[in-house]
Records
---
Amino acid sequence: MIDPKILAATAVAFDALDFTPQNDAIAAIRVEMDRLDRAVESARARWNDINAELAERRQPELQARALADALVSGVDAAVAVDTVNNEGELRDERDKLREALRELSDRKFAASQKLRLVEQAAFARVQEATKPLIAALDRQTREAAEVLLEAYTTLCALSFTAHAGEHQRDALKVVLGSLFEGRLALRQDRSAPPAVDGALSHLKGKCAALPIRILPTHQLR
């Protein structure tokens, strides 16, 4: 059984965690990422417009229509012709947009990396708070393993000498095999103790970098 005092102390440690710096950093990073997303959207929209205009250059009837539209709207004829004939400028602008989109992509990646570092820092603080509980569980499992091994060797001796306890010996052998292979034999309806879920629930809502989830029963295998 898990020591309720250590479990309660873990819950208190979770409550004491202050993630204000991490929450502020995450909020700032998300604002930055939103700005980058809007910039990318704007650049791509202009990129599409340029491609559409360049496509018109390859179709004289569309180019004539664009010139006629400009003249009808009151644009000076010389200006309208210059506007229609600025294909080189459009290509230059598209090249610059390509470089800008590459730079924006790099900045988005850098922002996502900063977000990951903040998340890692937040989880590192949670992990530090769990160390006493994990140490206690480690001692408990080692003690339990010793008990199981002693029981198994005793059952082996009984079955060998007295032909007794063979069924229990074989069942325990299966359990020990699972343990030493890194697996734990559990019924599908087994779940973590309620006190454990209760302690973990103290982390809910504390930090945007901590998407706290309670392990469903069917995944505990």
---
Amino acid sequence: MNNDRVRKLLEQDLMSIDLDLRKSGDQLTIVLIGGASIVLAYNSSIKTTEDIDVLESRPVRILERHGISMYPDHYLNLLEDYHERIIDVPFIGMTNLTVKSLGTIDVVISKIGAGRSKDIADCKQMAQEGILIEAIFRPYFNRWLERFEDKKPLENLYNIIFHE
């Protein structure tokens, strides 16, 4: 699936949630994580996502009804100050749904933590597109690495992203 099609499908899903929120009179803020974040917030050309994952949010039912997966922040093993790097993802025409995204640093840390080949490929693509800058990312990665006893597998993934 090409990137424009992925972007359009993700945007349609979010617009549908906004419409349901308007009908119910509710307001909601979500924080995108993963592939949807990379496509919508950072305009990357990755093509490996068709779903929307968010940090745990309320009201849950409306998100579940739309097939949105929710994850608590501790599940993603994020740095404790990730809130400071959350960014707005503006959408024209949405009134009841506010969309935000993890910062680049935190999206990549969560993907390295997951360690799946498609996640590492996404990170590599972000680096090749100039969305992920090694000199900026490295200090955060080093701080995150301190949590782990066996750092070698994570260092190997880092090297795949930036040096292969």
